């Protein structure tokens, strides 16, 4: 494979940038910070986990509603980067503001987290859509996987700094509280995210677009309506979105709620942070490996592998009892977490009409986000009904099985790359 171009490198570096948010805010420090705040306010462990799940559901619902609409507008020349920057700046600002909210205000923490989550996910809609602008179809698996791999590597740097500060505060080696140390981690995340997004903003440009026309908003709604009417004619794309809807639900839910789940099992904050750090380190080479194996065995077959691993994860999670059990679970997730995300993104990018990539990635987003509403709600409701978080994680197995069955019916992208409109589901 020839060396990455400036555009490919700049695109990859945004995964390096926003991965700090993924590990510190979505997965590690913020959930522990929030759980401690809620606990101090007298909220039970099961209820605080449920409220976090409901908050994630609300944030994803907001973006699911506006994603396809904004994507349709962003297909016009010059709009893609504008929308990307809007959501990117919202996410960075909200992440920084988390550091200034009093720790006892757990509801306000969840409200600010909602804005940060919408900004993070919204920027990713347009970032993912830029994949068609920066590389060729033949290189998409490799470039997408490289992005996820570099993301995991990059996330370890701010994560290590944050862990060190928090542990030093826990042991009274530095004269700040654990709460203040966590807030410093939020500021580190915002700074890291903002700094390493600069190459994408500077070097990546929209190559495929629709020429501007009068009344772009009105016409975007018309195009969106036309796409909705015609989407069943895009057989491969429609089936893939349906499969993706189910299996990515479980992936996203496990990522976003793993720390809260581990806390409910009685695993210490220090152990959780160390486990998550090692998970990031292990996930990096596996994400890149998935991309290389996809070139040999096809992306679809490697997606099968990832989904099967997650089925095993869900079953194993039900029987978790010890910290060692959680270590094993985390390592299983690490082998496939990045690969399944990267190959899904590349698989979809090969199927979409390039000049309408934002609109179709809006649908990609809405399917993924609506699924992400279902998963956290399922875990939250089950945790409250049973008083056991393990039951909620186990219930996700059915979503992976359904996704696997539907994916089996999806044609390979190369065989269906033209997206023939005479095929129907």
Automatic annotation (TrEMBL):
Q: Which residues form a coiled coil?
A: none
Q: Where in the cell is it found?
A: Cell membrane
| Gene Ontology CC, one term | plasma membrane
Does Transmembrane count among this protein's keywords? yes
Q: What is its main location?
A: membrane
What does the record give under GO molecular function? transmembrane transporter activity
Native species of this protein? Pseudoneobacillus rhizosphaerae
- Stretches that traverse the bilayer: 12-34, 54-71, 83-101, 107-127, 148-169, 181-201, 237-260, 272-290, 302-320, 326-348, 360-379, 391-410
Its membrane topology: Multi-pass membrane protein
Q: Which Gene3D superfamilies match?
A: MFS general substrate transporter like domains
Q: Name one Pfam family in it.
A: ATG22
| Protein name as catalogued | Major facilitator superfamily (MFS) profile domain-containing protein
Taxonomy of origin reads: Bacteria, Bacillati, Bacillota, Bacilli, Bacillales
InterPro entries the record matches: Atg22-like, ATG22/LtaA_families, MFS_dom, MFS_trans_sf
Q: Where is the Major facilitator superfamily (MFS) profile domain?
A: 236-425
Question: Which keywords fit this entry according to its UniProt record?
Answer: Membrane, Transmembrane, Transmembrane helix, Transport
